């Protein structure tokens, strides 16, 4: 039977996933102009991959349908770098062009706000579930 602990598990997995998303967005924004990485070439935008996972796949149909979020990995965006003319840049090629990451900072800001709102929503679910559990304990007294 689904209970308070399942609600906590689902919401806490959402918190963890959104924290990973926030971290990757921050990394993308910090490296929006990075032209040289240890792997070579410009920084590549990072994207977390979320998947759902059943809390109890062998339970009732409700329990099997109750899912949590897991981060299955972090992938690199496959968009090619932007070629920008800047012959004074230390990483410019013979023609004076520099390869920059294809990162839209405004788009990353929108993703950041969305991730923050999702994080807040999961935190509110945990708080509401805690309040319901405390009220249930109070009824039992």
Write the layout of secondary structure elements.
Layout: H1 4-30, E1 46-54, H2 61-65, E2 67-76, E3 82-85, E4 97-100, H3 105-140
Antiparallel strand pairs: 1-2, 3-4
Helix pairs in contact: 1-3
Overall description:
The protein is an alpha+beta fold. The longest helix has 36 residues, at 105-140. Helix content is 48%, strand content 19%. It has a two-stranded antiparallel sheet. It has a two-stranded antiparallel ribbon with strand order 3-4. The two termini are 23 Å apart. It contains 3 helices and 4 strands. The model has no long low-confidence stretch (mean pLDDT 90). The chain has one domain (4-140). The chain has helices at 4-30, 61-65, 105-140; strands at 46-54, 67-76, 82-85, 97-100.
Sum up the structure in keywords.
single chain, 141 residues, alpha+beta, two-stranded antiparallel sheet, 3 helices, 4 strands
Number of helices: 3
The biggest sheet, with number of strands, parallel, antiparallel or mixed sense and barrel status, is: 2 strands, antiparallel
Number of beta-strand segments = 4
- Give the strand order of the largest sheet, numbering strands 1, 2, ... along the chain: 1-2
| Helical proportion, percent range | 40-55%
Order of helices and strands: HEHEEEH
Give the overall form: elongated
- Integer tally of domains: 1
- First CA to last CA: what distance? 23 Å
Low-confidence stretches are: none
| Overall radius of gyration | 22 Å
Q: Calculate the mean pLDDT score and round it.
A: 90
Structural class: alpha+beta
- Hey, roughly how much beta strand do the residues contain? 15-25%
